[in-house]
Amino acid sequence: MKNKFFEIIGLITIIAFVSLACGSDSGGGNNGNTTYAITMEDNGNGSAEAIPNTAAEGDTVTISATPDNGYKFKEWESGSVTLSSNTTATATFTMPGNAVTIRAIFEEVDGPYLILSSIKFSDVEYNYSRPAAKPITITNTGTETANVSKITFGGDAVSFEFTGDSSIINSTIAAGGNKAFNVQPIAGLDAGTYSATITVTYDDGETAINNVSFVVDKTNGAVISAPTLASKTLDSITILAVTPANGQTVEYGISEINDAATVSNWQTTLTFGGLNAGATYYIFARAIANNNYNASSGTSLVVTLDSGGVTMDVPGANLKEMMEFLNNPANVQSNSTYTLNFGDTAAVNDEYTPGDTDYDEDDDEYEYTYIYLSYPGKSNITINFTGGGIISLESTSKGMLIYVGENVTLNLENITLKGSVANDGRNNPVVGVDGNLTMKEGSTVTDNGSTGVRVYSGTFTMNGGKIFGNDLGVHVSGTGIFTMDGGEISDNQPITYKKGGGVWVETDLGQSEREEKGLPPDINAKFIMNKGIISNNKTTGQGGGVNVADGTFEMNGGEISNNTAGQGGGVYVGGWYDSEDDIDSYGIFIMTGGTIYGGSDSSANNDSGGANSLTVSDNTSTKDKATAKYKGGKDDGKDIVSLSVGYGRETKTIKYPEE
After folding, report:
1. Fewer Cβ atoms within 10 Å of its own Cβ: the N or the C terminal residue of the chain?
2. pLDDT tens-digit series, residues 46-70
C-alpha cells in the first residue's frame, strides 16, 4: 500500500519468515518449562526493560534502553549472554538455562540526539482483522534542537501503512521534545513475520534507527469431512474428492486399522488398488499444511470389499482369453471367487501361451502347464469351472492341462477335462494339485496318456464325477491327501510304471529329503475312501485298484471291484528299503468298512515290498462292518489284498479273507 506522506528511499527488501508455530516466538511462552528471572540495570542516566522479564531456556527476549534527557545509549553489558547487538538500544538474545543480569550504559550528549520508539503489534492468525494503528515517537533526548532532514523505510515497509504529519520532514525537534506519526499493518498478509526498519536522518547525517514488527501465525486447517465412496471393485476403492472451502490441498490414506497414524503412504489421487477382496479398510483424509494453514484431519470412511468374485462366460473361441486372464496373477486377487462358465468344446495346443514352462533335464525337453493357477503372495482364491463344456489338450500337445497352486481351490462341476495321448509317465497329469481340488457331479477327467489327477502336497476331494481312460487314475504323492466321498475311478491302465491302475499312494520321501523339508516320519501321502467306486482298472504290475507303495490307505466305505493286477488285484500294499539310510518305507492299509471283491491277480508271486503294516478292523460280512471278499471262492489262488514284506530279506504272502 502506498504511504500517504513519506518518501520510500532506497531499495526495500521484503523478508517474510513463515511462523512455524502458533503464537509469537519473541518471548514469553514457556509451555510449562522452568522460567528464569531477567534483571535489567542501568548506570543511572536512563532506563532499561526486558520483554518478557522471565523466560524459559530457549525463549527469545527483547531488551530496550531509553536514555534520560541529555544522554544517549552507549552499549550493553551482558556478561556471558550473547546479544544480537551490543550497541543498539533495542536488541534480542536467547534465554539460557539460568537467571541473567544485563546492564544498559548511557553517556552524556552534547548536542541533539534523537531516539525512536519501538513498536510491536500483537500476534494474529491468518485471516486476521486489521490491528489499529500505533504511534511511533521521535524523541530528542539531547541538549540542542535537532533538524530532521529525511525519514526512510526499509525491510518489509510495504507491509505497513505509515500516516501522520508530513511537516515532520525538514522540521526541528527541540531538546526534550518529540514528534510522532502512525504505523499500521496492511490487511490480508500471509502467515509470516514482517519487520520494517525506520531511519530518521538529522543534522549532519546523524541517524536514529528502530523497527516495527508484526507476526501473522498460521490458522487452523480446514474442517475435513470423511471421504465419500465413489466405487469399489474386488481389489480397489475409489473415493470422491474432499474439497475444503479454504482451498487447502487434501491427501488420502488407507489402513486396515482405524487409526490415521498407521497409514504408511499418503496420496492425493482418489483410487487405492491392490487390496484384498473381503477385507475392511479405513480411508482417511487430511488437509496438508501450507503457508497459511496448519494441517488438519477428519473422520474415516469404512469400506468392506466384496468377496463374491467374478463370473466369466467363456465360449470356446475365447478359451485363449480365459487362459490369459487366469495365467496373469495381476487379474486374480485374494479372498476372491472366479466362476468360469464354459459351454463349448475347445482344445489347447502349442499355439496357446502356457502359464508355466519347466525344462525336464531327464527327457531333455520342455514341459508345459497351460492353465497355471498359481498366485504367490495371495490367498483364499476359489476358481469354479462349470458350464458343461469340454477343455482338452491337442493330441500332439504334451504337458499338464491345469496346475492348482497353494492357496487356490479349484472346483470342477459339470465340466470335462481331457489330456493328451502324447503324454506319458506320471509327470504330466490332467490336473496337478498343490492347493485344493474338488470334483463334483458331472465332472470328468479322462483321456490322458499320463495321470488323471496328481496330488503333490495339497488336497483332492472327490464328491462325484468320474476319472477314467487314463494311464493312471489318481497319483497321491509327497504329503498330498486324497479323500473319496463319491464318484468313480475306472478303466485306467498304467503302461509305463504299471503301478496302481486306480489310485497310487506313494510318499516317495527319503530320510534326507524329509529332514530338508522339516517333515516328521508320520507325515505321508494318504488316501481316505469313504464312498465311491474303484473298478475295472488294470495293470500288469501291483495294485489294480489301489497301490499303497508307501503312505496310508484308510478304507471306511465304498467299493473296490473287478480290478486286475500282477499282484494285489484289489489292493496292493508294498514298500521299499533305503539301503543308504537303512530305513524301510512302507505302506499302511487300514480297513474299517466297504467291500473289495471280484479282482484277480495274474500271479501269486508276492516277493516285493518293504516292511509293511496292514490292519483290517473287522473281517466279517455282516451289515455295516468291513468286508473283504472276492467272487470265485477261497480256492482260486487269487489275492484280492496282497501284502509283501522283506524286500529280498523276507517274503510273506497273505490272502484275504483268510482260509
Report:
1. C
2. 999 999 999 999 999 999 998 998 8
Place of cell 504337458: 399
> Would you call 306 helix, strand, or coil by DSSP?
coil
Report the chain's C-alpha Rg in angstroms: 47
Q: How confident is the model at residue 513 (pLDDT cuts 50, 70, 90)?
A: low
Helices (H), 179-252: none
pLDDT-based confidence at residue 16 (cuts at 50, 70, 90): very low
The reported pLDDT for the residue numbered 649 is: 30
Mean pLDDT of 493-499: 82
Residue with cell 463349448: 344
Q: Which domain holds residue 108?
A: 35-217
Mean pLDDT over 316-341 rounds to 82
All three cell numbers of 236, joined, read 480397489
Q: Is there a single domain that holds both residue 284 and residue 148?
A: no
398 shares its domain with 417:
yes
Instruction: Tell me, yes or no, whether 557 and 460 share the same domain.
Output: yes
Res 621 pLDDT > 80? no
User: By C-alpha distance, which of 337, 341, 405 is closest to 371?
Assistant: 405
- Cell numbers given for 633: 471262492
Using alpha carbons, select from 112, 243, 88 the residue that is nearest to residue 171: 112
- Number of structural domains found in the chain: 3
CATH number at residue 130: 2.60.40.10
Distance, in Å, from the CA atom of 642 to the CA atom of 563, rounded to the nearest integer, reads 13
Is residue 585 within 8 A of residue 613, CB to CB? The reply is no
Amino acid at 262: T
Is residue 4 situated within a structural domain?
no
Running DSSP on this structure, what letter comes out for residue 153?
Answer: E
Query: What confidence score (pLDDT) does residue 90 get?
Result: 86
Q: Is residue 6 pLDDT above 70, yes or no? A: no
Q: Is 316 helix (H, G, I), strand (E, B) or coil?
A: helix
Task: Please answer whether residues 413 and 442 qualify as being in contact, where contact means their C-beta atoms are separated by less than 8 angstroms.
Answer: yes
Q: pLDDT tens across 256-298, in order?
A: 999 999 998 999 999 999 888 788 999 999 999 999 999 998 8
Query: Are 68 and 203 in the same domain?
Result: yes
Percent of the chain at pLDDT above 90? 47
Within 8 A by CB and 6+ apart from 205, the residues are none
Tens digit of pLDDT for each residue in 128-167? Answer: 999 999 999 999 988 899 999 988 889 998 999 988 777 7
| Residue 144 in domain | yes
In a domain, 658, yes or no: no
Q: In degrees rounded to 5, what are phi and psi of residue 72?
A: -140, 160
Residues forming a β-bridge with 228: 240
**What CATH number did the domain enclosing 250 receive?**
2.60.40
Averaged pLDDT for residues 351-368: 60
- What is the C-alpha separation between 349 and 263, in angstroms, rounded? 48
Q: Which of 162, 187, 217 is the last residue of a domain?
A: 217
State whether 260 and 164 are in the same domain: no
The residues with which 209 forms a beta bridge, in sequence order, are 199
The whole-angstrom separation of Cα 264 and Cα 255 is 8
588 in any annotated domain = no
Cell of 621: 460280512
Beta strands in 30-112 (DSSP E): 35-42, 46-51, 54-56, 60-67, 71-77, 90-94, 100-108
Instruction: For residues 499 and 32, give the distance between their C-alpha atoms in angstroms, rounded to a whole number.
Output: 85
DSSP 479: T
Whole-angstrom Cα distance, residue 326 to residue 330? Answer: 9
Residues 6+ away with beta carbon under 8 Å from 386: 339, 340, 341, 342, 411, 412, 413, 414, 415
* Sign of the dihedral defined by the CA atoms of residues 603, 607, 610, 614, in that order: positive
Range with top average pLDDT, 27-36, 214-223, 562-571: 214-223
